[in-house]
Structures are given as C-alpha cells and as structure tokens.
Design brief:
about 425 residues, alpha+beta, Cytochrome p450, three-stranded antiparallel β-sheet, 10 strands, about 50% helix, disordered C terminus, binds protoporphyrin IX containing FE
C-alpha cells in the first residue's frame, strides 16, 4: 500500500492509508517514488523524534518536492541562521533554552500570560460569527491563532493578511507538490516572510526601542551581546514562531470543531464541562494531529525496528500513524471524545524538540471551543458537508468547514455536495 501524500484519497482520509500501512506494510519502509523513508508505529515515531544523535533537524524545512533552479536561486536569500526547529546541537540547545526561559510552557503560566488576550480575540471573532446564518468556520480557525501569534510576538495585527499569505505559500513550497512556476512564486513569498521578520527585528534592535511581545523580550535578553543571541537569531526565532504558531493551531481548531459539531450532545458538553473539554482537545490532537507527518534526516546508518536506514536519508515521520497505532489505543480510528488515554499522543512531537507552544495551543483550543459552544449552542455542520483537507505531507488543515445556525433558514452552502455524515 503506497502512501501518496498528494493524492485526493489521502487528502480526504489520510487515516485510511495509515490503517492499511499499520496492518499490512512494514512500519519502516523506503518509498522509491518519494525518495523518502516512511516511519510508522508509535514506538518508531517516538524514537526518531526523540533521537537527536542519529536524526537531524537541519533539513526539516527543506522542500519535500525538489525545487527548480530558479526557485532555488530565490531561496538563497532566505539566510536565517539555525535556531529551535531548524537547528541541531549546539544551536538547538542554546536557542531552545532561551525560548523556554521567556515563553510560558505550562498551562498555568500560559493562562496567566495570555488567557485574557486569547479570550478577547475569541470574543471578537465570535461576535462576527454571530452575525451570520451560514459561515466557513475555517475563517475563525485561521484568524484566531494568526492574531494571537502576532500579539504574542509583538507584531501589528494589520500585517495579518500578508503574514498569512506568505506562510501559506511557504507551507505549500515545503510540504506540497507545486509546479516549477508556483515554486518560484512561493520562494519569493518565503523570502518576503523572512525579510519581514528580519526587518522588524533589526529596526527595533537599531532604534533601541525593543517594544513589546516576545521579540522585545528576546532583544532585551540579547542585551547588545551576540554571545547571548545575534540579531539574526532573534529574527529566525520570530520566523520559527510565526511559522509554527498559527497554521498548526488553525488545523487543530478545524479538527476539534468538526468533531464537536458532528453530535449536538458533544457540542453541548463543551459549554459547561471542563473535564469533557480537556478530553475533547486531547482526543482531537490524537485522532487528527494537525501535523501528521514531519521530516527528519538520518545522520548515520541507523537500525530502526530491524530495518537499516542509510546515513543521509530523508524520513517522513508519520505522527498520525503513531497516534492510530492499535498497539497503544483501543479502536484507534474512532474519535472517542471521552477517551482517557489520548494524552500519550505525539501531536506535539517528543524529546528535545517537543513543541514550545503546546500550552498556548491548548489554551486557544479550549477557549475557542468553550466560548463558541456557550454563545452558539445551535451551530451545526452544513447539510452536505464533506471533509476535505489541503494537500500536504505535513499539515492537515480543512479546506473549509461550512456551518449554519440550526434556527436560521436553511441555505445551500457553496462547494458542498453529497450526503451528510
Ligand atoms: C496544535 C498546535 C501545534 C502543534 C500540533 C504543534 C506541533 C509541533 C511539533 C510536532 C513539533 C516538533 C517538531 C520537531 O520535532 O522537529 C513542534 C515544535 C515547535 N513548536 Fe509547535 N505545534 C503547535 C503549536 C505551536 C504554537 C502555538 C507555537 C508558538 C509558539 C509553536 C512553536 C513551536 C516551536 C518553536 C517548536 C520547535 C521547538 C524546538 O525545536 O525545540 N507550536 N510543534
């Protein structure tokens, strides 16, 4: 059973492919067409994500589809130094330690620092939504984390449209299968995103007015001393955070809302039962991780599950398949909103690169679900809704999530057809 990450069936239901892989194929196998090793199984995925000796992050964000010479020439200007997710030791340990010192990583600290901010953003978007009888909830799912991550970094919200477009193009270049023509355009967007971060950070560093948010905190930590952090490293950390911070959470929010709205009882429980809310968030991350594949490269010849992977091999680490491993979960393909052992999921990775923003993402998911379920108890998926994801080897995000108010007059929703689930 081949995993074709750009095929229509995979982008409609990737879990069906993981199920067949786990049942029939070797969990560690080489796909000659993709030129990539596929890693499935909970133990294997956790091992690779945690093993920073035999596997490198240096090419984690290198495009999975080879880029044209023209696009490659453009990308030469994306000269961000290695930090956090793109770095190996020693840069990784140093830059991650700085992020951990400045960035709340526990639920309590995240709530203290960002609880009010996230609630304000959610309320604002919910008020907009209340004005509409039909809507695409992915608008909400995208705009919440996008505005929050700009607030967290201390970047102006007026830049949201540009930042969204550049980051989307960057993701299409890295995890998609674009034509050479599209690659060229996406390469320009990727460089524009890097220049945006670099120019904002450099202007603040040079003026001495470091400003608010994480960028201000990083510049104060730097304290004019490149031995602490260089200006380029601060900009690269901003790029890391803006890239990692919104698309992932937008994907997760789409999955969480989709699953919640399939059943009016589930939706009602989220309004006033905090335990159910927390279980729903974790089961969403297990069942439908918004990053379900992640790229690593072996640094040495390494044996995994009895299979030898040569040095220098690119690996697609199938987080989604790990989260659906029947050796770990009963009925893994069923979304069980009351599952109590979902928390072993690998949606936020594992080991030294474990997600810095997990507490922030969980805060955003819980605040959004609770608020929408309270304010819009009569929300439901549009008749004829069919789940479809944007094509990607890594990010699993709905193309749209059409909803209607149950008391609103039924209107057909554009682009949907077929039977309700
Ligand atoms: C549901 C939402 C999210 C998911 C599923 C997610 C997933 C992940 C995963 C799988 C990794 C590990 C990458 C690796 O092993 O190479 C990671 C790392 C990271 N994430 Fe998230 N993430 C989410 C939200 C966020 C947010 C909101 C931020 C914003 C601060 C963020 C910032 C980061 C950073 C900076 C890293 C790199 C950490 C390091 O390399 O040490 N993430 N994330």
């Amino acid at each position: 059973m081949r995993l074709d990450p750009f095929s229509e069936p995979y982008n409609r239901d990737p879990a069906a492919t993981w199920r067949r892989m786990l049942a029939t194929a070797a969990p560690v196998s080489y796909d000659p067409e993709l030129g990539i090793w596929l890693i499935a199984g909970h133990d294997n995925v956790r091992t690779v994500l945690s093993d920073t000796t035999n596997f490198s992050n240096a090419t984690t964000l290198a495009p999975v589809t080879p880029v044209s010479a023209a696009a490659d020439a453009v990308l030469a200007a994306l000269d961000a130094p290695p930090v956090a997710v793109t770095a190996d030791r020693p840069h990784h340990l140093r830059t991650r330690a700085i992020l951990r010192a400045l960035f709340p990583t526990t639920a309590v600290r995240a709530q203290q620092q960002w609880g009010a901010l996230v609630q304000t953003r959610v309320d604002h978007l919910a008020t907009d939504l209340e004005q509409q009888s039909t809507a695409d909830l992915m608008h909400f799912a995208v705009h919440l984390p996008l505005s929050v991550i700009l607030d967290v970094l201390g970047m102006p919200i007026t830049d949201a449209t540009d930042v969204r477009a550049w980051t989307d193009d960057f993701a299409r270049l890295v995890w998609g299968n674009p034509t050479p023509h599209a690659q060229f355009a996406y390469a320009h967007s990727s460089v524009a995103l890097w220049r945006y971060c670099a120019d904002a950070v450099t202007a603040r560093a040079e003026s001495g007015d470091y400003g608010c948010g994480l960028i201000g905190d990083l510049l104060r930590y730097r304290n004019h001393d490149d031995a602490n952090l260089t200006v380029a490293e601060v900009a690269a950390l901003a790029l890391n955070i803006v890239g990692a911070g919104w698309q992932t959470t937008a994907g997760a929010l789409g999955h969480a809302l989709d699953q919640a709205l399939t059943d009016p009882d589930r939706w009602a429980r989220l309004a006033d039962d905090e335990h159910s809310l927390s279980l729903h968030v974790e089961e969403t991350l297990r069942h439908s991780p918004p990053i379900d594949g992640w790229l690593r490269q072996s640094t040495t010849e390494v044996t995994l599950d009895g299979v030898t992977i040569p040095a220098g091999s690119r690996c697609l680490v199938l987080i989604g398949a790990a989260n659906h491993d029947p050796a770990v979960y009963d009925q893994p393909y069923v979304f069980d909103p009351l599952r109590t052992r979902a928390g072993q999921h690998l949606a936020f990775g594992a080991g030294p690169h474990y997600c810095i923003g997990a507490a922030l993402a969980r805060l955003e998911l819980a605040t959004a679900l609770r608020t929408l379920a309270r304010r819009m108890p009569n929300l439901s998926l549009a008749a004829g809704y069919q789940r479809q994801f944007r094509p990607s080897v890594a990010l699993r995000q709905h193309t749209s999530l059409p909803v209607r108010r149950r008391d609103a007059r039924r209107c057909p929703v554009a682009g949907t057809a077929g039977r309700p689930r």
